[in-house]
Amino acid sequence: MSTKKTYILGIESSCDDTSASIVCDGKVLSNIVANQEVHAKYGGVVPELASRAHQQNIVPVVQQAIEQAGITKKDLNAVAFTRGPGLMGSLLVGTSFAKSLALGLNIPLIDVNHMQAHILAHFIKEENSKIPPFPFLCLTISGGHTQIVKITDHFDMEILGETIDDAVGEAFDKSAKILGLPYPGGPLIDKYAQHGNPKAFKFTKPKVGDLKFSFSGLKTGILYFIQRSVKENPDFIKENLYDICASIQYTIIEILMEKIKNAVKHTEIKHVAIAGGVSANSEIRKRLQLAEKHWGWTTYIPKFEYTTDNAAMIAISGYLKYLKKEYSDVSVTAKARLKVSEL
Question: Which of 173, 179, 203, 246 has CA 20 to 30 A from 341's CA?
Fold first, then answer.
């Protein structure tokens, strides 16, 4: 006797990427992402332009996700959407669309915490995928967040440590801006760092608590160092770009690894995952893989397409909530600020 399949539509619109995905019983059938090129010339995301672009993109993106999955909207069992955290205007587009579609199809609506979804992307079923057992630790690193989270169950998460000022993604992007690199600069620092000497220049690491992060002082230190060096030699950046990028990246990754080592020591949990946009960084991935050999950890590194904002992580979170029958009321509202432990 064949069992009925469960199809969940996930919608992600927290920042500047409009994304829709179909997950069937934990497996991704489609994961469509529409990027917004409009922000590059402004050196960062412009909220008003982002929400307008979401309005233009959401219908074709959802349509494409359904078509690529080889189903019709009548096959859907539920609609999951990002409730927060994120840009309010962007979130409202996804929330309103998800509500309307769920009402129109008379199927459950499921609200998802964007930060939980980054972590739960590890539960997407794929060939050769390594799914972490409970409890595990997750270093959640993105443009807006830097946290060490202890995960006891799919929706039982506790923040053990977080940034007291800027997020790690912001540290990468602002450092890139100082060097005159285009937005988003983080991936470019990673790219150029491959050809440089990570010990060429020394930057001071902030002194904060065992599990706390701070990046504002590091950014200031990098700014002053570049200003001084350029004053002495106007071609300093051009002549040393690879070494500067390698040294910045080395310092940032050292900070991240130090904190996750402290968390493992405090909790005695040796299952360690990474999540969020910065988990696409090649150096953090390499260092985590080395940690398996050096410290006997088991590490979990997401596929590149599940690191940046995408709807597959929303759909898998929705699927896990659907199994528990944790549905939302249509009166649910978007929330720009939401902790990983909420929802």
Answer: 173
